[in-house]
Structures are given as C-alpha cells and as structure tokens.
Amino acid sequence: MEKVIEKVIPGKSTHDGAGVKLFRVFSNIPDLTDPFLLLDNFGSSDIKDYIEGFPWHPHRGIETVTYVIKGKVDHRDSEDNQGTIYPGDLQWMSAGSGIFHEEMPKYIEEKNKIYPDMVGFQLWINLPANRKMSTPVYRSIKGKDVPSIRLGSSEIKLIAGRFGNDYGAYDGGTQDVTYMHVKLNDDRIAFSIKELYRAIIYVFEGYAKVGNSVYSKGQAIIFSEAGNSISVSGKGELMFMSGRPLKEPVAWYGPIVMNNYDQIKQALLELQHNAFVKDRKPLFE
C-alpha cells in the first residue's frame, strides 16, 4: 500500500551560525518528523553568504549529518577530530553526552581560480533516551565510499541504510535510518522504495512527482507512517530520509535536545561551569 502525503512544508530562508545564509527545510516539529529534528540546506554562490561559518558551539543528545555537494567545510571538535569535508563527503557525528565543534564552509580554489559555489546539508537526528549521554563519536565518510545506484538515467547515492539489495556507506545505526541523495532525470522512470517508517523527501533542484502532484524546489514532502511504499518520478534532485520513530518526549534548547527540561537545565549549568564535555577539556581553554 502506497504511503499518503501527510504534509507539505515550504521551508524558509534564514541565517544561522555567524550569519550563514541557508534554507531551513524543517525544524522543531518532531511529531511530524521523528526521529529527525532539523534539516538545513546551506550555501550560496556569494562567498560572503557563508564564509563566517558556524563557529565553536555545543551539542548534546543528537546526531548531526553534514553532506557537502559543492565547496568544502573545515571541521574541528573537542574530541580532537579535525578535517575537511569535500564535495560528495559526509561527516556523521554523534554528539552524545556533549561535544563542542565548529564547521566552516569554504570555497574551492584550484590553479589560482576560485569556485565560489557552496551547496550542503545538515540533518539533525534525535538520539534515544538511552544514548543521549553516550560517548561522542565522529565518523568521516568519503564520497568514493558512498554507493551509486543507477535507475535508468537517474541515480541514487546511498548514504545510509538500505535500498533493495544495496547497503549505504553507513548502516544507519540503531535507529534504522535511511538517507539518500537522489537525482531524477526522467519523468517516465519512477524511483520506488519499500518503506516501513515515516519518510521525508526534500526537493532542492527541479521538481518531483508523487502521484498526480508536482512538487518544486524548496518543498519538503512528509509521508505518513501508514503504508509501506513510495514512488517518485521527475527531473530534479532530492534528499530522501526515513527512520524508526523514537516516540519519546522532546525537550529542545538550541543545539541541545533531551527528554525533559530538567536535563536541559543540567546541560546549561554544566556549560556555565565548564563541565559540559565529559573527560576532555574544550579546545578554547
């Protein structure tokens, strides 16, 4: 049985970090997007829109997944991880009990020529209560390790989870998350997936067709939990995500997401007393 569309979200343009221009696809509607919390589409062809980046800031209780399509992002964190996310690469970070990090989008320069275009995504995934205070984990996933699946003239980059008999670069963790970058190049060829959980599609280029309806750039399509299959066609690019809902209480304060506000108050108290990051000292000391 085909899943039905429960809601279409238009998203909105905003700024975050130190003034990075981005498109906030969805945020803080966990009843509709569980286990996902937020999806940002950041980037611009104007360097001034992103160069100040996302300076040093904390996270607790979530996973952040940063995917770069154009440009690059420099990263460092309080676990002594650092590196650069190049086009096609990902960073999948479990903040767990607490981490500080910074992500600084940069243009690519080759042979004295500047390529200013920046396109990327950051997805926040909620952690279950029994993992919110787990040890932080940093995972770097190179683009060459992301399986590419051809569907006629269309293509799926399988970041996490499973599609048919293929498995993604990351297994999706304990939450059974599927995350894919889909390029649709033919109205006649449907991209179909068997899906048991809540699913979300975000169109970021061109258009996608679901049933008799057409959805354009900037729209997020949220499918019901009921049903077990989705078919999409069109000419465009989209991000597809699905995951097992946690169905747990959500208490959210900025970059900290817990299950109740006593836990939020404790996190803020630890921030004030330099005790937020467990067993390590923040790099700014």
From TrEMBL:
Stretches assigned to the Pirin N-terminal domain: 31-125
SUPFAM superfamilies per the UniProt record, alphabetical: RmlC-like cupins (SSF51182)
Short name of any one Pfam family annotated for the protein: Pirin_C
Pirin C-terminal domain mapped to chain residues: 180-276
CDD domains cross-referenced by the UniProt entry: cupin_pirin_C, cupin_pirin_N
Family recorded in the similarity comment: Belongs to the pirin family.
PANTHER family: PIRIN (PTHR13903:SF8), PIRIN-RELATED (PTHR13903)
Protein name: Pirin
Provenance organism: Candidatus Mancarchaeum acidiphilum
